Amino acid sequence: MYSTASGSSRRAKRGKLRLMCVDSICNLEQNHQENPPNKYEFADIKDSCRIEYNGESIEFSIKQLINIKYLGQGCFGSVILTQLEHRPDVIFACKRMTLEILENNDYSSQCDLRAMRDVGNDRHPHIVNFYAALIDLINGELVICMEALETSMDKFYSTLHSRIQPSSNLLDLFIRRLAKHIVLALDYLKSKNLIHRDVKPQNMLVARPVIFKLCDFGICETYNDSLSLVLHRSMNYFSPERFRGVYSYGIPSDMWALGMNLLEISQGYHPLASQPILSYLSHMNNGWQPDIPLTLNQHTRDLLSILLRHNVNERPRHYSDILSMPSMISVEENPSDDEINLVNCVLDALPSETSE
Ligand SMILES: Nc1ncnc2c1ncn2[C@@H]1O[C@H](COP(=O)(O)OP(=O)(O)O)[C@@H](O)[C@H]1O
Ligand SMILES: [Mg+2]
To answer: Where is the Protein kinase domain (predicted)?
Structure first.
């Protein structure tokens, strides 16, 4: 069951929130003179909004959002499946992030919202759609309303391997379609001058029939930005050059992360997950090479191996280079019945979600 914040922490949030409300909604001109403008990333966000939802214009307030079930938890926010009051047909995944300034959450929520607005409004087929951002004055939270997908890839792949165990051919096709969808999403971000920087199974979403989308833009950066926020990032997907600190974060590092993800998802576990961080680091510094499952098709193995080239200069330079590889060209536009059945079976077999 989804559980709410404890009474005392909610009271504490309310105390800070009052100040936030004044800052974010009223007296903007006066506050702009007293504080730098970048303090007001949320200034235009209110506790109600009007959106376009399936071709209909809908107005609602934060009070009309009814929690249905818990969808997931990340470093910066919890995500809840939500329904609009008296409108069971209007469903969102609402990501709630505290407005309290804690470590880097301020940076993250601003970054998430900015990137979401930038990319989530375009209805790209492989980027989670954005609908609205609201301020929850009672709980002191920024609420991002987005389209709801079924689950994330971390939960999906563990059920895929533990309960379903597809044939090698079907698993191979699944991995190639996933790779194609995520590469299309990353390429689209690149066209917007953005790098995701946190490509991991928890940030890949799955929907029926066979659709994969990228979410979580909390540490997304503009391409030329030199800032390198590593806090809260999973080192499991850090490329070797990131550990050496010799290159600023760029597309090749996201490519490495994608390769590591595809390897993990295809075999059902991260290849170095059991290693302590120092030994992981030493593997990365000593030219670790992946053992790519022999059950995968040769073209798929080629894809994983080129993404996981230790030398950053040997990885593909552009996403278009990946999309023109045989493993990607061979992915048909529409998924086969076998792929559709596989995704349906896994989604139907997922354990029910409980809040953490
Ligand atoms: N649109 C969505 N539909 C379904 N589940 C989602 C959606 N967005 C996020 N989730 C779930 O919530 C988790 C946390 O969301 P995320 O945006 O990654 O937060 P964080 O920035 O804190 O990591 C995800 O790993 C996923 O399981
Ligand atoms: Mg996340």
So the answer is: 65-328
